[in-house]
Amino acid sequence: MTDEVPWVEAATIGSESAKETWALAAAQVLEQVAGAYHAVVTVKELGEAIQQRSRIRTRQPAGQWLGDVLFRVTSGCFERRQPNLSALCVTDAGTMPDWYADTVLHLRGAAPADVDQHAADERLDCYRDFAADLPDDGGVPALPPRPERPTRVTPPKASGVRVARAPKVSTPRKPAASDVVYKICPTCFMALPGNGICDNCD
């Protein structure tokens, strides 16, 4: 036997109940993330973590439902005047998901001018509330590291100088024997020499 709580499908209990439970689980997971200075969690990682914690799962990708869940988390943070825990959730590219700006706009009445910097400031407040490894100076806001894109390297040219090729010059073809046209003497029908005077009829 196992003491592990069995899984429940989100479709079985209904979307609203699932999201309310996920929001509670998400807040707990995000508080743990905030416990490490400058730590963040990706959309996929958070989606998997809150399903594991709540034991409620769905086959839908996290990107399709996590925005709604984090809206509920953020609403609770604003009501309690706590830092916005949803700022700790980033995309695989290290940027903020699209729903972050929409959530801030809806709850605060103004969209952030710089979404990523706004989230970095919010994350610092989260670290100051939960992190045990916060620097003595209180820390600084930071953007998550972003994956490096592969750099296309162009091979250097020899000696750094482009050598111009000489234009191709066609060499005149030597006429074949069959191409030469001879003048014929009208009297004896022999080929005439270069001076045009027939040696036979002269």
Detailed description of the structure:
- 38% of the residues lie in helices and 4% in strands.
- Helix 2 (15-33) crosses helix 3 (43-54) and helix 2 (15-33) packs across helix 4 (66-79).
- The chain has helices spanning 10-13, 15-33, 43-54, 66-79, 98-108, 115-130; strands spanning 8-9, 41-42, 56-57, 89-90.
- It has 202 residues and is mainly α.
- It is built from six helices and four strands.
Specify Rg, calculated over alpha carbons: 41 Å
Distance between the termini: 131 Å
Biggest β-sheet description: 2 strands, parallel
Sheet/helix structural class: mainly alpha
Q: Which word captures the global form? A: elongated
Strand content: under 5%
Strand order across the largest sheet: 1-3
Poorly predicted residue ranges = 158-167, 177-182
Question: How many strand segments?
Answer: 4
Helix content: 25-40%
Indicate the multimeric state. Answer: single chain
Mean pLDDT: 83
- H/E topology pattern: EHHEHEHEHH
Number of helices: 6
Descriptive terms for the model:
202 residues; mainly alpha; two-stranded parallel ribbon; two-stranded parallel sheet; 6 helices; 4 strands; elongated
Give a quick summary of the entry.
38% of the residues lie in helices and 4% in strands. The chain is mainly α. It has a domain at 8-130.
